[in-house]
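User: Show me a protein chain along with its predicted structure.
Assistant: Here is one chain, sequence first, then structure tokens.
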Amino acid sequence: MRQLTILAAVVLFLTLAMTCQKKALPIDEGISTSNDTLSYSRTDRDDVPPPPEIPWWTLDTTNLDTCQQRLWGYLRTMYPTREDDYWGYETYAIMGEPEGVFEHRDFVGRYLHFFIDTIYSKRGMLNDPANPCMNVDTTFFLQALGPPTCISQHVSGHQTTYFYNFKMRYRSGPCPYIFNEGHPLEWRCDVQHLEYCALLMVMFAKQEGGRMTYISFYGPGG
């Protein structure tokens, strides 16, 4: 039941986003802020900026509980790209992406497996009564990673979803994919802007003080 509720929330968010959109933009009307191009398959763009020279996190790592430590082990490899666009998106990248296509597929697979199986699944740490993730909330993610690319508030006001989008070297198109500035058919967090990015999605329950209730990672789209 819990998984069905979460799935329904995700479907609702995507449905609302697509409903608000008047029509899909043809590819030739979209212009990226970079020289990146679209392709039918994921290719090695090799254009991901390196990590900032100064620390981007503010998390105190001296007294983390077990769940926080496991999450920090992965979140510490994620960093802000600091690339400007007129929508002001905060996008991220991941350290250590391999060059080989099969190695890169395994690399992404480790992140998918960790967030779903190790943290969220029925046997994961989030649902472990002996060692639940009680202290992982919005503040933890803001301090460990930074501000999300987009935020969604559930209509009831009882749930908040953080969307962290990642620019990865193997993609089918620009991340983000920005159209002509001021285009009348786009809006902030337009699904087309971020369709070629990877995604870390985290849900928090406000009635529980912002405690994390769901987390998952998806590879680059397109």
